[in-house]
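protien #1 (seq + structre)
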Amino acid sequence: MPISIKSLAFTGACLLLLTTAPSLLAQPAPKPVSADLTPATILGTMERVGDWQLANPSPHKPRDWTQAALYTGMMALGGVSGDTRYLDAMRHMGEANAWNLGERKFDADDHCVGQTYVELYLRYSDKAMIGPMRQRFDDILAVPSEVQSLEFTNPQAKAREHWAWCDSLFMGPPTWVRLYSVTGDQRYLDFAVTNWWQTSAYLYDKDEHLYFRDSTYFKKSEANGKKVFWGRGNGWVMGGLVRVLQFLPNNHPARQQFVQQFRDMADKLLTCQQPDGLWRASLLDPASYPLKETSSSAFYTYTFAWGVNQGLLDRAKFGPAVEKGWRALVGCVQPDGKLTHVQPIGADPKKFDESGTETYGVGAFLLAGTEIYRMAVLKAAPPVKVTINNPADLRRANETVELNLSDLKKQFDNKDISKLTVMDEVSAKILDSQAYASVPDQSPDKLLFQANLTPGETRSYLVLDASALPATPSPIVKTYARLVTERMNDMAWESDRSAHRIYHQDLIKGEGTISSGIDVWSKRTRNLVLNNWYKGADYHVDHGEGMDDYRVGRSRGCGGLGIWDGKQLYVSINYHNGRVLTTGPIRSEFELTYDEWDAGGRKITETKRISIDAGSNFSRAQSTFTTADKSPLGIGVGIAQRPVEGTVAKDQKAGWMSYWQPSDGTKGNIGCAVILPAGSVKEFVTEKDSMPPVTQADIDKPSTEGAPAVANLLAITQAQVGKPFTYYFGAGWIQSGDFPDAKAWEACVRDFAARWEKPLQVKLSSN
């Protein structure tokens, strides 16, 4: 969107969206809402409700719990809709809030908005989205509340410093668990699990399998003499259970305890559903509360449907209740999309305006709709289940999964698989994916998507026939590669994390620069920048997104290679031919060929394929060499060393070498690394002979690209003639916010090498 609204609240964000969405403006009278259980009808109903809410923003504060509950539903809708306006609204909301939580340090209600921030971070990987939340939660862990009791008495503000009321279990724990999932910080997960069960021990009635609202209800009773258990309060708990289980590692020791409580509560709540398909404000005395109530009913429909979809609840037992609940909820949606029969905040639950609505009710409705939609989609398009195991004791973030299309075709009984998409099994969200040809000039033979797994975890995803879906979300394109014909045929490529270029022979003619090294463009943004930077032709100056401050010269730059004869490095000149093989949301790839060069008497030619994946600072290089002599080739993969001492780290056994360059004045440090297969590095050497001499004047007054290279730091290995030689190289920048120092960069390199050595284990099966 062309207009910046960072200073606007969510209300303004919604109104701005209306000005750019003509489909929401003056239209003919809408048709009645249909309760048909087809994917298109369900999605259409959800979008109608979401559109009404965007057009009629709530007066509540944008970080309020009422709004935060709505945002969870908007994110769910955005994960299945083909229209971007729901996710756009959420991102604008976060920007308007400067990604801050509510004002109260400990209150769970003021943490709830963080769930949406984390889910947006999972899409865009922008650390600003979770920065203030991390600071808040770190402060809570460092200086916890002094309140000891969960008793919900005055002053209420103090009571709310713990999860002392059942609604808080939707607001707080899912936020903490989500933050753990994207940071790997075990403290956040431990806090969520420990405090959930502390609250459960206090408020959960083990006989009724329901939660008291708070301690003030322990001795209260309904008109029929039964205990008081509020419909929406227990709906919040069930929603909280689902949203914790979505991100709680499958191998966590407390997971089964959460699952059992979810099942026990679901069994009890099933008996509380009324003949019309809805639940009432009071669960055990519905006769005293005759009004329909959609917010609690939406939560139960959502959680029952999720449980059935996960195989945690029996389909034959709960499926009819889910369908009945959804039809009843749709019956409370007006033709214009307004959801009615939502019990207001703090109002008499026996008497309220049945035409009224509230954002939290809409959020619950959209969550329910997403799971109902998933049910309908899986019925229309039976999926192939992809089970992925992380065999390593490390977190895998944004790791690319490659599925063989031939294997998928067999699983789909040899049906047409030209249009496939991937669904996250725990959330119904449609993930970005890409068809990819591993062999140039051939048809795609792989399907790519990305997974996130905690150490040792196993997760599942669903591959679907996309043609059976009424819509699929547009992918976020996070990689790009192109031949820059307007700048002497540079080959340039980037991910949302890093950017590089390699020089064509035209640069020799144009500037006299002979170099087959690899250049680095440092980014501080997750946006793709190549086209804009080349267009502006001012990329040696940082205009807020980063810059080119890396000097290659005749060096290997960041990951170039040469032929090593044991004493000397022989390198090619600039590449001769280049072509882009693919560019897409998950991976971009290109191929280069180099003219023959003399390597100590051996005539060598090289074909090089380089690819980069979304979310990665590292590019994959695959070089194939030809020469008459078929004996193994010595290879030196290198990094340019600067005249001022930097930080070099090496691990010969693991196969990696890292160099944290000295800072170029106020422009900061750049880290480079090369990673070879574990056990393949013969030695590390510092090589200067292939480098032109550097004068003191050049060191004292460096160019706009920083200090010159004085040597190549080389990892020495071997390659077989005619067979692909594979390695990785990559770069990071201190001012990106990802790598505050050399230690952080080395940890990233070490982690990547470990993940390469222990790849994900992937299994396909019929769901």
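ok now protien #2
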Amino acid sequence: MPSEKPRILGIDGGGTKTEWVVVEDGVEAKRGVLAQSNLRLNSDEQLAQLFAVMPHDVSHVGAFLAACATEEDRRRLTRLARASWPAAQVAVGSDRDSALAAAFRDDDGIVVIGGTGAAVHGRREGRIEKAGGWGHVVGDRGGGYDLARQALREVLTRFDLDQRITPLAERILRELALNSLHDLAAWAMDADKMSVARLAPAVFAAARLGEAEMLGVIEGGASVLATFTRAVAQRLAWPEAHVRLFGGLFAHHEDYAALFKMRLSTLLPGAQVEVCRESGAVGAAWLAGKRSVLRAQGSMPSEAEQLAHALTEQSNPRSLHLDKMSAQEVVDLFASEEACVAEALVARRVELAAAVELVGAAMSAGGRLFYAGAGTSGRLGVLDASEIPPTFGAPPDLVQGIMAGGVTALHRAVEGAEDQREAGALAVLQRGIRAGDVVCGITASGRTPFVLGALEKARALGARTLLLTCNPARERTGWDAEIDLPTGAEIVTGSTRLKAGTATKVVLNLLSTAAMVRLGHVAGNRMIDLGISNEKLRDRGARMVAEALAIPYGEARERLEAAGWSVRACLERARKP
């Protein structure tokens, strides 16, 4: 319900992300980051799901999304916003409006937007002028997608000309976990706009390391945006325009802002240029409530305070002098500390059995198992889920991993991915989790907001919930099953990829394997539905058949091949009367 004081939700949606902020009495109370929201690219259902996980105890809502350009667009966005916040006053518009408000409030000026896309918008005495921003296929010059696309072309051209793999090419292959430029070309054919744009930081890094082609790419992007800015200023008859650089390319890459300023100083010498550090969501909130400039919130979030007290964050007295130890001492320390993993598992035998029963019963009734995690925990969940189809012949949707930050976070950290409860809730909605499924939240500290948000939404949808942590000191939270493994402080303080990661991997192995046994994918201790896809697995399957039927290896292999390399089919044929 709306509060007595105005409580304003500002939403700024773009091609890469959606930022939101809640403002109360001129103070930022809460903020978050979710997936993209482009009125042209997102369906009503997708936008409704996005809105559903944002705060709803607000009196005003300002929703300003990319591609909201026409009166029909504004009517559509108004309808969607009012459906989600029926009691709130709603203001809508484009991300251009929120960017101008973030940069200038009611004052006039020119805002140069440099994010996934790029555009220049100017306002003077009620008149609006624009340059760029025609979309990534034919426009958006100077944006992250445009820079990354040009860089990819340069990488491949350099290889075509002199068979040279540039440092940028090596970095891109590493970041995408690809093995060759042929793989990169195939990836680029199917990659979406956001995936390509995420390579822009690598382009800037290459330019800073002296790759001339990449320096040329970013100089070209800055130059074209400066040229667009001069064109807008000329149409507004404003040679001394106030110019604000807005968006991630300028906020995170000072060299891009510097190149723009240098170029504009020759094209429009009288212009006054600054980088705008304000979020577009703040501009959206200001437009919704016409609030004053926000004051920064100074208190430490309670979840962060709680995390600081988690056992996984404490210092291990046995490794205080780790940096001074010999190789043998380090080996002995790791070996002795890993014994804590077995002890932790034994200490939680009862809770583990309850979790096995919960998961097995749900999956026997047609439910699916989802792991939700961030960082190491999320990667372990995705890994366990990915191994179920080849190991047990189960369909890939039966066990799934939900990773904070998506596929990118599997091989490199994604800043802030784990900090948003709303992002976890949205992932649960968009992955189609329903009553009868099981969601296992994995968080070593027990505090990760993304995981808790996923569990809360799963419970609201009627799914069963399971929390796996390595922090027995936390408060119990009432999920269907809870396992807190007492693995203790890590050898490297806070590095939960160590003992906590090992213990977590064992538990996930236990949960999924026990469920597959219950579903009949194991006979005795044999993987009878093993997916046989290479010579090693053909050999393993033949040995299983030979052992099960007490026949020579050669005969077993012949029978297995005749059964289409299906161990189950081979054994069933042999046992028919």
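The CA atoms of residues 61 and 570 lie 63 Å apart.
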